[in-house]
């Protein structure tokens, strides 16, 4: 692990280390499902958020490494290999976020009676996320 990776992983602030609740604010237009609801909270555990932030910090360091490779005129195949590794790492984070959303947010929406809205928002996000 390089120094930049270690710095990125240890740079969590005390506010990030405390129990954390974050809210996704969804703006709806009249033609979108759930237009009557402008904001709904998504609550995630401190441990879950810490894991995702740590992965993103490692990816951030990896991207800096790829940038350095380009600046040092490294062979193109080596750069492409590292870009593929970054893509794979980002895909893994996306998978974790999606899994968390399904097990936590969708389940909570089902209990709260707004499952249709939550599923419509997930489908819209997947349409933008997937090629």
TrEMBL record:
Entry-linked Pfam families: Trns_repr_metal
Bias type Polar residues, positions: 1-16
Domain of life: Bacteria
InterPro entries: Metal_Tscrpt_repr (IPR003735), Metal_Tscrpt_repr_sf (IPR038390)
Region (Disordered), start-end ranges: 1-47
Coiled-coil ranges per UniProt: none
Protein name as it appears in the record: Metal-sensitive transcriptional regulator
């Amino acid at each position: 692990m390089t120094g930049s990776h270690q710095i990125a992983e240890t740079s969590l602030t005390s506010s990030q280390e405390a129990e954390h609740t974050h809210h996704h604010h969804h703006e709806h237009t009249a033609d979108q499902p759930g237009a009557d609801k402008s904001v709904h909270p998504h609550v995630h555990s401190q441990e879950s958020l810490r894991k995702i932030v740590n992965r993103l910090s490692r990816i951030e360091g990896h991207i800096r490494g790829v940038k350095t490779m380009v600046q040092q005129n490294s062979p193109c195949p080596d750069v492409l290999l590292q870009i593929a590794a970054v893509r794979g790492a980002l895909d893994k984070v996306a998978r974790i976020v999606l899994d968390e959303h399904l097990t936590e947010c969708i389940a909570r929406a089902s209990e709260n009676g707004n499952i249709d809205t939550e599923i419509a928002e997930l489908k819209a996000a997947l349409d933008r996320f997937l090629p």
